[in-house]
Amino acid sequence: MKLGLTANSEIPDAIRVGRRVYNLLKDEDVVLESGIAKLFGKEGKPIEDMDIDVLITVGGDGTILRSLQRTESPIFGINAGVLGFLTEIPENEIEYGLKRLLEGNYMIDERAKLKAEVNGERMYDAMNEAVVHTANVAKIRHFNVYVDDVLAMDVRADGIIVATPTGSTCYAMAVGCPIVDPRVNAITIAPMAPFKFAARPIIVPLDSHVRVEVYKPKPCVCVIDGQQEKDMEGDELTMFSRAESTAKFVSFGSTFYGRMHEKIMCFP
User: Fold this and answer.
1) Catalytic member of 27, 61, 149, 231
2) What is the CA radius of gyration of the chain?
3) Are residues 40 and 87 in the same domain?
4) CATH number of the domain that 96 lies in?
5) Which letter does DSSP use for residue 178 in this model?
6) pTM (2 decimals)?
């Protein structure tokens, strides 16, 4: 098995844990991501240039989201951040997790992603959500949201969140969306701080085509998973739909509800 390894260089614990993982895998075929390779005094490659079977990420959810924008290889997440909802194991289970990984004793959990286009320009696919929001603090915008070319939402708000089921436990949850089981093929569309309380999130089929337009165009920003941003004048055609590829995660069988209870319901 050929493995890739990346860690969040902005988290001191992630570098420490990443070094520990690398030492434990010293007899395996491991490719280091360029950033941590430099810190370790080794040669490395950008994630997008890796030819690997599994990418091990050390950090939090942000590390995983950035990695997914650069690879279609399965992700094995080791939490060295804070919440780590998308990670599979904590630091104290590293030996156990690596043993199962090397033995092939795991499953692959596939999750839907969103394709995002601004004026026909393809952005990174979204694992959690794509957001179109005002470019100016405390300046709301008037949005029209179409689902399969039918007007579904006409709202004045700070922005619009278009989320996958996986993203329903992230930004979308913070604005009042329901938590959606990742086995449900759906897209959640939610206004951010709408002017009218009656403006509520809606859930549409995953195969829908969602179009977000700004009425009376004014500057906005399109953000993918909190990682990629694109400034907008406000007159762009912004489209979201099911991505052709899925995100793949190494799983040891933990359930969505068990993780939700541990990470969200009981997290301090």
Assistant:
1) 61
2) 19
3) yes
4) 3.40.50.10330
5) P
6) 0.92
Count CA atoms closer than 13 A to 25's CA, side-chain side. Answer: 25
How many other CB atoms are there within 10 angstroms of residue 145's CB atom? 23
Amino acid symbol at 232: M
C-alpha dist (Å) from residue 176 to 146, 179, 212, 257, 260: 20, 9, 20, 19, 16
Q: Let me know whether 235 and 258 are in one domain.
A: no
Q: Are residue 48 and residue 93 in the same domain, yes or no?
A: yes
Cα(170)–Cα(89) distance, integer angstroms: 19
Angle at which helices 94-103 and 12-24 pack, to 10 degrees? 50
The answer to whether residues 96 and 207 belong to one domain is no
Same domain assignment for residues 213 and 95: no
* 61 part of the active site: yes
Q: Which domain holds residue 257?
A: 2-106+252-265
The rounded average pLDDT for each run of 10 residues, N- to C-terminus, in the chain (268 residues) is 93 91 95 93 95 96 94 96 85 95 96 96 97 92 97 96 95 92 96 90 97 95 96 96 97 86 68
Residues marked as binding? 61-62, 66, 128-129, 139, 156, 158, 193, 227
Q: DSSP assignment of 10-34, as one string?
A: T-HHHHHHHHHHHHHTTTSEEEEBH
Annotated binding site for NAD(+): 61-62, 66, 128-129, 139, 156, 158, 193, 227
| Distance from chain centroid for Cα 222 | 15
Do 257 and 133 have their domain in common? no
Beta-sheet strand order (sheet of 186-192): 202-205, 186-192, 159-163, 129-134, 220-224, 228-232
Count of domains for the chain: 2
